[in-house]
Amino acid sequence: MSAVTFRDETATGKAPAAFHVADLPARMTARELIRLRVREEVARHNARPVHRFNGLVQPDEAEVELNGYRPREARRLDWERQAEIAERAFLSNGFFMLAGDRQVEELDEEIDLTGDPDLVFIKLVALAGG
Question: What separation in angstroms does the CA of 70 have from each of 20, 42, 63, 66, 114?
Fold first, then answer.
């Protein structure tokens, strides 16, 4: 079985968050890996709902904060809804996904996990006035 480390980075290369998931098949598509990542982070949030969500994408009815999102109230999130939002964000270049040293360009692209790779997610931020 393989494992993967999900890691966020900023455009400047800083790594604010990372977590590891083991016991995965040798190959998974980018879509499956994004959904796995979202399911894991939502499960961690739902185990202890707080007024801040640190995840890949912004939940419905939440405001953007420094290094996270603030829902209007502490509540459980629906991981499948968050995964749909993440897939749309990937398709509209809301974030880049790097597997090893290359950019993943398609949701159905298969990624080899036999080397226990880091998957790096770089969120893009819209510039004010641009």
Answer: 24, 14, 5, 10, 36
- Domain membership flag for residue 128: no
Model's pTM, two decimal places? 0.85
- Write the pLDDT tens digit of every residue in 30-81: 999 999 999 999 998 889 877 777 778 877 777 776 667 777 677 788 999 9
Provide the domain limits for residue 25.
2-123
Assigned domain for 130 exists: no
113, part of any domain: yes
- CB within 8 A of 72, min separation 6: which ones? 61, 62
Q: How many Å apart are CA 73 and CA 88, to the nearest integer?
A: 24
Is residue 129 one of the residues assigned to a domain?
no
